[in-house]
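Here's what a typical entry looks like (Putative HNH nuclease YajD):
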Amino acid sequence: MPWAAPRHCAAGHPPFTGARCPICAAAAKAAAEARRPSSSERGYTGKWQKARAEFLKLHPRCACGAVATVVDHVVPHKGDQKLFWQRSNWAPMCKPCHDRKTVREDGGFGNPVKGRGDDRICPRGKETGGVISRATSPEMTTSKWEFWG
């Protein structure tokens, strides 16, 4: 049972309960998605798919211990091709950990946008009991994650 009485949005859509009109929210989401460049325009080409597969073969596990299916850009590249291809900026992650990291850093679900340093707590910290620290050696060609218990 809803706690608040149904209300109308400013656009005159049918009554709704909750924080935002679902029709207006869906329209805003569709408009944002239409403005977003395609994955290939963002650099995720066949070359990326091949590099990603090789990286995941060398680094098959997420820091939480699950099978890694995503190559995360530790520092978001924001279109910077040099940072995009810098393997020391890559980290193997499972999809749930990557999704949690993205929500936490990019302001998903209404959260404020946050940056983050080199040290972080694994999104599955309760399960792993570990804080993860990124090795920052300039000679590194791939990301390395260490558990600190």
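Residues 117-121, 123-149 have pLDDT under 50 and may be disordered.

More examples are in the samples folder.
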